[in-house]
Amino acid sequence: MQVTVFSCRKYDELPEFEKGAEELGLKLVTTNEIPGLDNVHLTNGSRCVAITTTPVGRELLKAYYDNGVRYIVTRCIGYDHIDVEAAKELGMTVANTPYGPDGVADYTVMLMLMAMRHMKAIMGRSAIQDYTLRGLLGRELKDMTVGIIGTGRIGLSTMRNLSGFGCKVLCYDIFPNKAAEAYGEYVSLEDLIRKSDIISLHMPLTEDNFHIIDAKALAKMKQGVIIVNTGRGPLIDSKALADAIESGKVGAAALDVVEDEFSLYYYDRKSDVLTNRELALFRSYPNVIVSHHMAFYTENYLKTIVRDSLRGCKAFMTGADNPWVVG
Q: Rounded distance, CA 179 to CA 160, Å?
C-alpha cells in the first residue's frame, strides 16, 4: 500500500509522514516537487496521492488515473483547487483533511488587533528608529462591532474568542449554527455589511460566494471599515478592495489569503517577477497586513493533517469507513 506525497516539506512534514506511515503499515514516496504532468512518474505504484493547495485539473487527474491513482487527498480543508467533477467522471475519490479551528481563529483575532492598532506601521517605524505617534491612534475592540461571515467551526471559534473582548458580534451564514447564537446575533448579510466596524470572512469558496466582497458591498460599508480574510482569497475582489483602500473607504485590511495565490505561496519567489499586481499593491500599503496563507500553521495542525491524510489513504485502500471523502 503506497502513497505519493507531493510538496512534502522536509523540515516539518517529512518526519511526521515517516512516523505515520510506519504506524499504519504504508509505503511512502515523498518529494518536495509540486504535482504536475512532468512528474506523474512519481506516482508509479501508488493508488493514493497527497497534495497541498496546488491546482489539480482534469488533465493531471487523467494522467494520475492512467497511472493507477484512484484517491487524491489535499492536506487542507478547502478543496476548490481540485477539479472534483473531473475526478468523479474518471472514478477517482477526492478527500480533504480538516484540522482543529482554534489555530485559524486565534490568528484571525490577532490580525484584527494588529490592523486596528496599526501594527504594520508601528513595526516599520520601529525598524528605522522613528518613535513618533502621529497616525498611529488605535481603537479598542470593546467599542467596535465585528461581523463574522460564515459561522462554521472556524467562524464559531473566532466568535468564542471575541466574547472575551466585550465587542458586539454580528454574524451571517446561509446555514445558521445554533451554537453561534451564544456569542453573536444573526443578521442579514446586508445589515452585517452596513453595521460592522470589522468584517471577517470564514467561508469555503463556492460559485455562489465568489467575490462576495465586491465594489457594491464595499460601497455599503462603514467609512474606515477593517477587512480580515483568513478564508479564501477569491471571496474578495482584489481590485475593488485596492480601490477602496486607496479611497479611504477601507481603513485597514489583514489578508492571510489573496486571489491567484496558488503559484506563489509556500514557494521561494524572491528573485522572480510576480504577476499578481494586487498582491504587490497590498504589500505596499502601510495599513494592509499580508501573510502567506498560514493561519492554520500550528503544531496541532501539522500532526492532524499528516495523520488524517494517511489514515484516509489507508481506509480507502482497505475499504474501511472514510470520513474525509468529499467527492
A: 10
